[in-house]
Amino acid sequence: MLTIKNLHANVEGKEILKGIDLEINTGEVHAIMGPNGSGKSTLANVLAGNGGYEVTAGEIRFEGKNLLELDPEDRAREGMFLAFQYPVEIPGVSNATFLKTAINEVRKYHGKPELTPKEFLDLMRDKSKILGMDENLISRSVNVGFSGGEKKRNEIFQLLMMNPKLALLDETDSGLDIDALKIVSNGVNIFKNKNNAVLVVTHYQRLLNYIVPDFVHVLYKGKIIKTGTKELALELEDKGYDWIKPDLIEAETA
Amino acid sequence: MNKIPEFESTKEWYISNFKSFEEQLNGQSKTFLHDIRRDALVKFAELNFPTLREEEWKYTSVSPILKNNFHPVIDLAQITFSKEDLKKFLFPGFDFYLMTFVNGIFNSELSDISGLPNNVVLGSLKELSKSNPGLIKEHLNAYTKIDNSFNALNFIYSTDGAVVIIPDKVVLEKPVQIIYINGTDGSNILSTPHNLIIAGKNSQVSVINNYSGLGENLYFTNAITEIHTDENSIVDYYKVQNENDNSYHIEKLQAHQKKNSIFNHYNFNFGGGIVRNDINSILDDENIETHYYGLYLAKGKQHIDNHTFVDHAKPNCVSNEIYKGILDDDSRGVFNGKIIVRKDAQKTNAYQQNKTILLSKSARIDTKPQLEIFADDVRCTHGATVGHLDDTANFYIRTRGIPDELAKSILIRAFANDIVETVKIEQMREQLNHMIFEHLQRVEIIDSEKSR
User: Fold this and answer.
1) Which ipTM was obtained for this model?
2) Minimal CA–CA distance to B291: which of B267, B259, B325, B316?
């Protein structure tokens, strides 16, 4: 589904990603872990097409298409979704209007008719129930007056509504208490099936107790330095990152 | 040797034209209004039109306005449109009293004030100055003075305007919608409405003053509005300025507030080539509240200047002001927010904010807070920001499959929302949002759900 080859990317002229290779297939859950500043969020933003990040080398193919040639909206229409670490507030535009616009833009791209008001309402009821959301939230302005946890839950609500092929979750667990974490994870687990994929970017192992990854990649200084299974995440939780940092290992062996 | 002031010939024209104007007035020259006209003419002769050298007009050149001689209107123009045609200029979806002015002159056929409670006066200055001068004489001109040549020009040539008088203890349930249709009748029309809104003790009224321009004719609206809010009254005054983009629009609004009164001024500016609003309030007693909400949108070569002045004369009053602007193309905005807290006005709480978004590289805003505080126990805060649409927010919206242009519209709506949501008449809000996108010529985002 997604193939990343030798990806290099800069932010404000500084190289953050220094050669990433990654392959994600349908039905898989991948986790990217790593210490602060390792480039995790950069990777998520580059995949979603954030104009503030400059790709200097490498290739990304998504469902056979050259992703780097697509605008953010076209990436979304092709089936990519980024749940933001810091979701944006949009006063004056309700969640319902925002999502209806989004869903219908994607449908239009695929030559499908717009959802009828009833179809949309049913979909919204259905998905909000999964996340235990108050129906009133739907008529509230996007993320305005939401707590940190509510914003994250709203991201997962959008994920369920848009039902993409690939979900990128950028630090979705940050700022969540354990109950909210369970609800959000449950939402992701309901989303996940054999035809889609999930890429979780996280600093902590905690989330991976609930969203169980097939692969765990450790990102450090812009490179994936180790790939393993969910046991690797537990080991990282236990021992921290130092034991696998190549520069530190080299220093010790020198 | 003295330099001849700029546009001396324009000034001379307005003076010499008065004679023929006077001759056409017929019976109207017998009312007390005519004394006001003569006084203003004397004053006008002493004044010169403002130039960029004056602090108050530093960022707004009126030269284009003075390159033309605009002709005052005395009689009602031939109307080529019907009540049905009028509908597209009105805010729909709620009951209201309607007063229509064409080129500044009241048109009773296009108005509807049926079902008005006893003693409430909704009428035309022209009619009332003949039929019931006592009613308006004590108020007209009592709250405003001539600050500049344009004010004087209104006094000289004004023959009509909207009069709203709410007696003590009356709450007018339905809003009053006053529509000014300008530019219908050839070029170079001078429209000079002089409006008067009087709210008695414990009364309440909501007035929508809607200036609409037709076609592409060049014309000049030069208005004065006087508002008096007596003790414990509440006045909501909505100005919606949507003149055509070739026209010029100057309005001076003077509010005079008494004890425990609340005055809410909503100022939506869409149209006009050169626009200058002076909005002044005198808080002349205790426990008064004044709220100013403004939104200005400009494109092309439009120039919109808002000068506000809140004069805290007595203690324990609150003023709150939020002005926001969206400027595109080569347009210019000016915001000057003056607050005076006089020596007596202890425990004043004054707040002012101006935020502008520039949608293009060549749009420009000059913003200036002007606080003069003479009391020592007060709270005054102010702030001004100028920026662009937020890139991160734009990216967020686009990651949901929404194209860039529509994402920008969503952000424009979000920016304007602070002001639009203050409008108490709910049915006006979606129409105002619609006017934002229509004016900026951008894709519209319609909120089918009512967002909170």
Assistant:
1) 0.96
2) B267
Grouping H, G, I as helix, E, B as strand and the rest as coil, residue B428 is helix
DSSP labels, B150-175: HHHHHHHH----EEEEE-TT-B--SP
Going along chain A from its start, the domains and CATH numbers come out as 2-253 (3.40.50.300)
Q: What are phi and psi of B159, to 5 degrees?
A: -120, -10
Reported as a single tens digit per residue, the pLDDT across B12-45 is 999 999 999 999 888 777 888 899 999 999 999 9
Q: How far apart are CA B49 and CA B242, in angstroms?
A: 25
The pLDDT value recorded for residue B214 is: 85
Tell me how many degrees the CA angle B253-B254-B256 measures, rounded to the nearest 5. 150
Distance CA A68, CA A58 (A): 10
Closest of B351, B215, B239, B254 to residue B304, by C-alpha:
B239
Top pLDDT among A42 and B216 is at A42
- Taking contacts as CB-CB distances below 8 angstroms, the residues of chain A near B404 are 71, 73
Domain boundaries defined on chain B? 8-285, 392-452
Q: What integer pLDDT is reported at residue B451 of this predicted model? A: 47
Read off the amino acid at residue A226. K
Distance CA A30, CA A222 (A): 17
- To the nearest whole Å, the CA of A65 is away from the closest chain B CA by 17
Out of A52, A72, A99, name the one closest to residue B399 (CB).
A72
Residue B445 to residue B412: CA distance in whole angstroms: 10
Nearest Cα neighbor of B269 from B357, B333, B320 is B333
Q: Which tokens sit at B55? A: 């602090």
DSSP E strand stretches across B82-218 = 97-102, 105-112, 121-124, 162-166, 176-182, 189-191, 194-199, 204-213
pLDDT over threshold 60, residue A254: no
Q: Which residue in chain A has the smallest CA separation from B408?
A: A90
